[in-house]
Design goal:
Length: 344
């Protein structure tokens, strides 16, 4: 039995169990090599290669429970996708323990993959085929009877609201429609666990909300989901629990509400100030809020009462160009933990 987020989780009952999970990459790069004779003349006598090692995931611990939506939140390069690739059994574990559906990816990779649904970061649809043909062909990879695949394809196209486009080629579809088709394709095998890597990256707000609606319906139906994202609103909307990653490490874990309550204040006052005072405003605002963050484009004052903080700002003789009081978000949590925003 192991502890996770203050509650005991049986290793055998966890859909995913990771302890000390590590992923390192080795890459070689060319460097100039000089002979003694040529060194004095400043000429290279050839090239040799130097091996460098990069740690993408650095000893992380987490458990994913059956029936929940679990998220990895962090900026690009935080180690989210590398973690997902290990879970999906397409990238070997360098070190540590990983169990997926009670099995070891190093030994049971094919058995695990047969029970997973995967929505990769980039769509891999066959754009020359129709919407429905993409589902029919994908279903055959799982040795499903044609009649079963046809029934599931029709049902899934209704679910992702693409039934009216079933006989159209994929190529001219919008990014949002292709994303919904990719989700439908991942569900053809009726997986026990659905992995989604940056499911709405590059989509416009309307398309993002359409995808969120489908994922929320999957959550309501009891499907277990694991997703990566660098959108804090996406994590807040969908995730029951999440971990915040930075530089390959987990820096915080909990529900969205727990993380905000633990690492931020109830409200945030956002100020935009004239350039003439922006460089020195940090010292002047000390004491006007529980925490002050001076960013290149704005100043953030963390306080339980944002309006009261704004009164204190005016009392200091400062006249901001604009002022906005909002509730704290997961991006404020990330800024507090790492000193930078999610979109840096």
């Amino acid at each position: 039995m192991v502890e996770g987020n203050g509650s005991a989780v049986e290793t055998s009952s966890a859909l995913i169990h990771a302890r000390g999970l590590t992923k390192r990459f080795r890459a070689s790069e060319p460097i100039a090599r000089r002979s003694r004779a040529s060194a004095g003349r400043g000429r290279s006598s050839g090239l040799q290669r130097r091996v460098r090692e990069f740690t993408a995931v650095d000893g992380v611990d987490f458990d994913v429970r059956r029936g929940e939506v679990f998220g990895f939140l962090g900026p690009n390069g935080a180690g989210k996708s590398s973690t997902m690739r290990m879970i999906g059994c397409v990238s070997p574990v360098t070190d540590g323990t990983l169990r997926v559906l009670g099995m070891d990816p190093a030994v049971d990779g094919s058995r695990i993959r047969a029970r997973l649904g995967v929505v990769p970061q980039e769509d891999t649809l066959d754009v020359e085929l129709t919407v429905r043909e993409n589902l029919l062909i994908y279903g055959r990879y799982f040795d499903l009877p044609r009649s079963v695949v046809r029934e599931r394809a029709d049902r899934l196209l209704e679910f992702v609201q693409l039934a009216h486009r079933a006989n159209e080629r994929v190529d001219p579809l919008s990014g949002g429609l292709k994303r919904r088709l990719t989700i439908a394709r991942a569900l053809v095998s009726e997986p026990e666990l659905l992995l989604l890597d940056e499911p709405t990256t590059g989509l416009d707000p309307q398309a993002r909300h359409a995808v969120w609606d489908r994922l929320y319906r999957l959550k309501q139906s009891g499907v277990s989901l694991v997703l990566t994202t660098h959108y804090m609103d996406e994590a807040e909307q969908l995730c029951d629990r999440l971990v915040v990653m930075d530089d390959g490490k987990i820096v915080a874990e909990g529900t969205p509400r727990q993380l905000i309550d633990s690492y931020s204040t109830r409200e945030v006052l956002e100020l935009r100030l004239p350039a003439a005072v922006a460089d020195t405003v940090g010292e002047r605002l000390d004491g006007s809020a529980q925490r002050v963050e001076v960013l290149p484009d704005r100043v953030l004052l963390y306080a339980d009462d944002g309006e009261a903080a704004l009164v204190r700002v005016h009392d200091l003789g400062l006249e901001p160009e604009s002022a906005l009081v909002r509730r704290s978000t997961l991006e404020d949590v990330f800024l507090h933990l790492t000193g930078r925003t999610l979109v840096d």
